[in-house]
Amino acid sequence: MITAENILLVGSILIFCSILISKTGYRFGIPTLLLFLVVGMLFGSDGLGLQFNSASDAQFIGMMALSIILFAGGMDTKVSDIRPVLAQGVLLSTVGVLLTTLLTGAFIFLTSTWTPTHVSLSLTTSLLLAATMSSTDSASVFNLLRSQQMNLKDNLRPMLELESGSNDPMAYMLTIVLIQVLTTGGELSAGLIARDLLVQFFFGGVIGYALGRFSAWLLNRLHLPNSSLYPILLLSLVFITFTLTDLVHGNGYLAVYIAGAVVGNARITNRKEINTFMNGLTWLFQIIMFLALGLLVNPHEMLDVAGIALLIGLFMIVVARPVSVFLCLLPFRRITNKARLFVSWVGLRGAVPIIFATYPVVAEIPGYNQIFNIVFFITLLSLVVQGMSISKMARWLHLDLPQEKEGNAFGVELPEEIDTKLEDLTLTEEMLAHGNRLADMNIAPGTLVMLVKRGKEFIIPNGQVELKAGDKLLFISENKTEQKKGVK
Fold it and tell me: What is the pTM of this model?
């Protein structure tokens, strides 16, 4: 019986099981998002029998989830990091998506025509299928790079995050245009595609930047009675940004990513509360989105398209993605072939291709069921083959770097209004050779020791406190003076 209580109970059980399973899977290097999909499939029609058949509802869930995921990803993107790789990221997110669509679409058409399979697709339908899978998935890329705390050489991480956060508009536009061609019986027009792309990028960029600046200004000017209201206010602005952009036929996904980057690089109040709220909300909606998509698919139907889907998936991993990446990065001589190969390998498919594959379902394009099942199969293949081997590939290509330390061992943060920085240091015997009191230490001017941590004990220091090897000191210094602590 479908009641509000039962929906709440089943939904809670799904989320509970997903989190428990993801904890176990993480130990074996299995992407958590893949496990969320699997949990949805296990509870779905071919598993425990939970029915969820609404592609339009899945679209709505995906729209909300991707808005939050892209905004949070933008907030974590530092402009100083992406500025050196801006040209590369833009080329990958536009020309790279187009090349992937053309190469994969041609392969699908030839494969469905020449091979003895029951899947037979026209050239336009083949291009539509390719377009739904042409962008890398922002949720998967952000999740894998950040959950594994990967630190990469040659600015590869900001390049990959910029690409995955900004390449959805191109794939979305190609998907919508090809659906319009198939439903109206028209012909493909390069001029129409170029015009729609220009409109999507223009309004997405302008509105995203404008509302990002407005959001940062409002957060700092509006004095709310409770600090917990600031992230909720920002969430409302995220959805306003998406919907306003969509109303003028711009790309909402690009707009929220740019707005997030603007807010994240501005000086805003209550950043800690906002980051905590957005991180938790991002995880919640990632779980809900992947569970819903897992419930939507009927796994037994994927068996009918497994053969051709495997061929297409391998072609995309081995041929289409590498060719498009190498061609896009050809003008950039400083990027090594190892780096190009790694970028090619991080062509992850995830929730975005599946959500885009629901558009042909809603539009009832001929063969829509086969399109959806092929995209779902290839997504699973990508998450298993590429998602489980990204860190190994980085080590094999010698592109990994030691993980950067985030925060400090004390868990202390200061408001951005205070132009200071916090750092911690663990004392050694050599540092205490000239005296074990704080007054004996050679500490740079403009730097203060706030706390001393000894095991589980915290000590508020003064000049005469006796220190021991292994003690951790929390320093505060001014950013403006760029003072560096010195303990010798």
Answer: 0.80
